[in-house]
């Protein structure tokens, strides 16, 4: 039986009719466009009336998809359906799974904005407020938003207008003018700093191997960095460099392998273990320079998340990943920008936690890594395929 | 002042004189070859008398390097020097850092074989036995082997003669005959199975995306797999495939993205959470097929190590990485072969734990990943650049 | 001053309004959608009336773009404008530049189909016929189609419905089920063979290095291959393998470098030079097996195009690239399918010559190569990231 | 029957005994080291007496290999064996195939230096002089050096001592300090310029896409570039940029695709065709800036070699590759340095022509390309994995 829905939003810009068509194909349904009023321009709001002859599963899916794209469906503006969790860490089967876009839930006659927005979460309603919650944090009895009725995504207009910053994303090929991109990024960073915003860097040890650490340290001293997210390796190599002049046994001034240098990273961990922590190693004079040194000296927080491949690890490295994920999430809360430098693992981890309105830049010499990060649903991420060392040097020159 | 050392071993094969030369350049020392008796063939044992004029640091380093290469230095056959640890998780500054090669320590007049051999460990002596120990497991008061006197590496002759299996390592380029390599690998696996040996697989979710899971499940059923090391993603995608026919929302039969499928991996985790664990989900009929299903049904152990990027995770995923590393290490103990399939993170983690005599094969479509794994000091690792799905299909046909 | 155009075609499916919007942004113009009648489904024909307020350059560009997308603009159905070339190899500045889609030109009251369709050509009108012509073949006085009035692109409906064959293109990632794609490709090839169609292979020497030559030779013997396009290297390595068992000095059975083998490719060229040509070398018994041998024995034509890096070259390698391009173009004329195996250079060269209705498959282990080929305007190309040797083995099993 | 040979040279440094061992394994022979006198240091000359029990083919191969490594074998200092070619473009089967190292031939009692040294050539003796000759240039009756008796390679000591410049080669990984490498390269270039030496650049169009053209033009104006080797694409994109501000239709200032811009490269070719050549297009004012403009204005020669994928091509592009190879070879004659920028095809073509004493630098963002070029027997090539645009900017700053 045909159902008729009224929709309103960026019907042309966001290919709404093509999407409905694809869903109908998948579910052996059909549709007819009864009315279509389109705006003067692509970015204008259009409205349509569409008749759908499709089974219930397909119908729900179409409504859900349109909702997630920011399309208003007045017939959906009913009270959201809430069902209790029957067991810790579980939700009803038809739970609403969140995107990273700004979301509202219709409760008791009004739209309530979701807090702690991130992707792949569930929505828990507590005292009239709605919290985006990780599955593992759901408690038995929590009220979970189910289906997609009474849920809507706000269209982020700022994002759409941000043409200049956006230009990078179209093409992750290395055949582009990195200099232009760096210039725009520097302007953005200066604007964020001017309004006392928050810029978080996610970095891998390649920052050190490629000689980007001088520029990075300078950026810390200049006050552009509000926090660092990384793993054990960056800190170990940074401290190894300070103590022995090598990184994984390679002399950083000459690029040559130092005999016996393979042992240096374990010696560095041993030295920090003797001090008790990185902060203490800086304060007792064991560590005298480097990225970790500058962070400690300027009281910039950092989180080092452990991984299965870690040696040591340093006492600061969090090997309990539940704790590490919480600490990461805390760090990126309210961030204005996140810059991801040559570390797929920590970048994906961080990307999962970010709402879509945080400016995100991914830099790596490997186009596949950049593409993978940009593709993972972090539509806001801009990719830059280039040498991270030269990138940081150039960026710092502009700051 | 010149010191003269007598050395014995594969002086020609292992480029011993070139290595001494390089160390002398680094430490501004000089050397003279006073005598050199070489064998009839390169693989034969040679002996030499060499005069070294070099400072103490350089001298120690040369002795240490030669020792690690399996060269005997009779003048070094003194009691190993033991120093106590002064604080948990720390060792004296000149601790001996282990390789992954078979090692012996000279104690009380005889050579004692090191137990739990792995790279980047320290040697702890307890009741006349020597244990290769991770830095974090060292306790205050433990006796640590320091310097390299009284330490020697056994030359693994088996490794050298293993010409056929070794052929793959020379070139990680994709331009080679994968079929030949698969044939040899299959023979090796059958030989290991025949003697009731242990074959451990380290695998990433690409095994599922590339369609390799049917072959892999068959290999489990045939009894070739003694254990699986992986992370959260492989198990989630495997169970998602069983429950919904998709992997990360992509239909595995048609290769097309399924509308709304992005939510399926969270639905799969929710389903397992309801059962309580993967084993329970298999036993209560929630999960009816797949890699995890076959492992449970055939009582093959698996360890899933958590990472910072994990969603969920599944209740079986170990988010405490100290525990996860212990469980991994336990799994590879006494393994005869480790096959690493398209997961750099878990492969490096496992590689760190392996002694050099474990046959190790690394398969990835990306030559850079294979090269990185083979380079990381796991000299025994053979690389194979190919499509993992086709590789498993072909391998299973030969088993 | 506003101009109003009437358009008809796949307005929704091909994002026509978004494209007009983008052009207006670029040329500081504006537009209003006066009417929009859309079909029942996305694939149906829609029609619209649009008012454009934009300068002449922008207006021409929009008409040209719409035309190239197969949109009918009745107001454009005027006699095409023809201007004479004033000098060999040159055309008037506003020449119409061709796509690889089927094109018609309006001449003397009727639509005339363009012959020799390819991309980046110009249209020459001669005796009422229209020829897609390379710039270098234009002669002074030739009548050239200028502007885009009187030109239209036919929408290739077959292409759109070809859902099964098309599935590969969406994602060039290596993380997909190659087996499914191979199965579909084999079916397609059998269908083409059944109707005595033409399948051309473009191949690089990797076919030999990866061990794909046995399968490829078998495909030639079975009659699936109508012609081979390649360069000097494939033929040299193939003949080197026949004469000496090596390819670039590497033993193909063991994968080991043969001492002195680096010289073998020059010895192979010398041997063919003595015979006079590849055909003669086969006929006089010098060459006894291999890809080139099978081609000669089965009278399958081949073209070897020279390149700046060629050694030798073989007497059959065409070092005059004008001739080589003509020979390539002749070979792909009326081809039903082109399979490109691991050679970016020859694949791009061939892709430039193909009309959009030729089924095209690109296979390479490097995702970047596949992406580059698929992106180069050959919208019909399907990419497959996998090991070419295993791919050919698997494909041949299905044929 | 055992033959005893006396050898002299870098026996330890160049692993001579290991190489003899490997050849004996291949030919089922055996050897005994009867005497070995090694120098004080690895770089010193050693001498040895070795007994070989091996068949004739293996014996010849060992002598040939040792000769090519610069080992002196006094028993080999006989008159070189010369055999006439029996047919144009062919040589006797046991011809001596050249390396790119400096070579001498023993004729009439003295060593004669080979002229036009390059790899994969043959040696033609004419009037007491020896010419390294491409196979295709051999004429019937030419006297060809056969076997390896009477041939020796000179050890290039300069190369060995060139430690600083050499450091880059060890590791083509992107994880290194590009800045250090650029600094050393700039010093080298200034030294070459100071002594009026010859620096040739081989470049692909990526130089333009990545924004490196400003720096490159500046380097031309400063007089650092003695010649450019490239293909059709670099010149077309450079002139397209001058005429229309785009490169392959992408606006180089904003990085955005320009509507209708895909046609611009054909328009650029048309414009140059109207002028008649690039030089004429510069002189008649059609082309007003860019790399080609600067080359013409400063009378720096360039060679554009055609390829099978070329559109157009420009009138300057040589489509006869025999001519193009001659022109390339002429350009690199007596070059002191060759810098290869992001073009595998032209770089391999040039590398084939270079003697081993020409300093060669390969820059590409893709590690696989750098590795392939460095591996191709051009042992002198130093690889640098980085963004070419930033590389040129940085390099120009140092010049």
UniProtKB/TrEMBL annotation, chains A, B, C, D:
<dbReference type="InterPro" id="IPR007545">
    <property type="entry name" value="LOR/SDH_bifunc_enz_cons_dom"/>
</dbReference>
<protein>
    <recommendedName>
        <fullName>ornithine cyclodeaminase</fullName>
        <ecNumber>4.3.1.12</ecNumber>
    </recommendedName>
</protein>
<dbReference type="GO" id="GO:0008473">
    <property type="term" value="F:ornithine cyclodeaminase activity"/>
</dbReference>
<dbReference type="InterPro" id="IPR005239">
    <property type="entry name" value="ArgZ/ArgE-like"/>
</dbReference>
<dbReference type="InterPro" id="IPR029035">
    <property type="entry name" value="DHS-like_NAD/FAD-binding_dom"/>
</dbReference>
<dbReference type="Pfam" id="PF21570">
    <property type="entry name" value="ArgZ-like_C_2nd"/>
</dbReference>
<keyword id="KW-0520">NAD</keyword>
<feature type="domain" description="Arginine dihydrolase ArgZ/ArgE-like C-terminal first subdomain">
    <location>
        <begin position="102"/>
        <end position="182"/>
    </location>
</feature>
<feature type="domain" description="LOR/SDH bifunctional enzyme conserved">
    <location>
        <begin position="3"/>
        <end position="101"/>
    </location>
</feature>
<dbReference type="Pfam" id="PF04455">
    <property type="entry name" value="Saccharop_dh_N"/>
</dbReference>
<dbReference type="GO" id="GO:0000166">
    <property type="term" value="F:nucleotide binding"/>
</dbReference>
<dbReference type="InterPro" id="IPR048963">
    <property type="entry name" value="ArgZ/ArgE-like_C_2nd"/>
</dbReference>
<dbReference type="Pfam" id="PF21571">
    <property type="entry name" value="ArgZ-like_C_1st"/>
</dbReference>
<keyword id="KW-0456">Lyase</keyword>
<keyword id="KW-0547">Nucleotide-binding</keyword>
<dbReference type="InterPro" id="IPR048964">
    <property type="entry name" value="ArgZ/ArgE-like_C_1st"/>
</dbReference>
<feature type="domain" description="Arginine dihydrolase ArgZ/ArgE-like C-terminal second subdomain">
    <location>
        <begin position="183"/>
        <end position="395"/>
    </location>
</feature>
